[in-house]
Amino acid sequence: MSNAWKVTVFGAGGTGGAIADLLTQKQYGEVVLIDVQKDMAEGKAMDIEQSGALMGSDTKVVGGIDPILSKDSNVVIITAGIGRKPGLRREDLIATNARVMKEISQSIRMLSPDAFVIVLTNPADILTRVVRHATGFPSERVMGQGGILDSARLAHWLAKLANVSQQHVRAMVLGGHGDHMVPVRRFASIYGIPATDVLTENAWQTAVEHTRFGGGEILAKFKTHGAAITPAHAVLAMVEALRSQVAHVLPVSVQSHGVYGLPKDVYIGLPAKVSELGVEQILEAPLSADEFDRLHASADSMEKTYQEWKSSQSA
């Protein structure tokens, strides 16, 4: 497995910069930061590249405004677009951010036709679908981040409430990223012990609520922007999986292709095997009746929002 991959991040804000920093620590071959704020992208690239002298990393880090810098990328990560503000729903961002996704997708299609694409920009599930159609790439090469972040938040709160190390907790959240997420009880464990055998029902619900509104809680603290560090680590997990010959099982936003009886074209968080082949397979694990219904409700909500946006484009 070679580290000589080139990874481009569109959007050099808090999350984009954090992703570039993590990739540099992992000694990828080249990391590119592209942003409409040229000086910010160049400045962050300089700062991150210079840190290599202390980390023993020779990663080349480049920043700028011109998409040509992304040419021949192995992975393109999209964080660009307007972010959430307090009181603003993820779905409220679609009109502006869909236009941004289309512009970036044109660059990706022309400059990096073989790249994998990871979308973070909110609403991530819907915009991943936009990018998939705008690039024309096969679905196994276009995926959105959401489930890994939400799963990490759930695992954190389960560990906190059980007073155990986070290293021993596993959890998985499916469905749409955000308020429509579907935490799966039977997938949550503490060193192999079902989490609900260790925690009370009240503690489980507390962990779920903190997970469901975790992004909003952080946004309310920052006021001008949302979380950056944990989303960056979630993206790193996806990029590392895409470099691996052995599949990693991750909850990522993928085209459903009808699993769980979902609409075939909808993008939604599902457990998937991700490797150097991209999304190899969606794992259709058994869900409770309530979880199944919630998953469908999440998909229906995103399908409705996507179709409303699509109709507005032809109006």
What does this structure look like?
The structure is a single chain. With 315 residues, the protein is α/β, with parallel strands linked by helices. The chain contains eleven helices and 14 strands. Strand 13 and strand 14 form a beta hairpin. The longest helix has 26 residues, at 289-314. It starts with 5 loop residues before the first strand and ends with a helix.
Keywords:
NAD; single chain; NAD(P)-bd_dom_sf; three-stranded antiparallel β-sheet; globular; Rossmann fold; 315 residues; Malate dehydrogenase; tricarboxylic acid cycle; 14 strands; alpha/beta
Q: Give Rg in angstroms.
A: 19 Å
CATH topology of the largest domain: L-2-Hydroxyisocaproate Dehydrogenase, Chain A, domain 2
Architecture of the largest domain, CATH level 2?
Alpha-Beta Complex
> How do the strands of the widest beta sheet line up side by side?
3-2-1-4-5-6
> How much β-strand is present in the residues?
15-25%
Provide a concise account of the structure shown:
The protein has 11 helices and 14 strands.
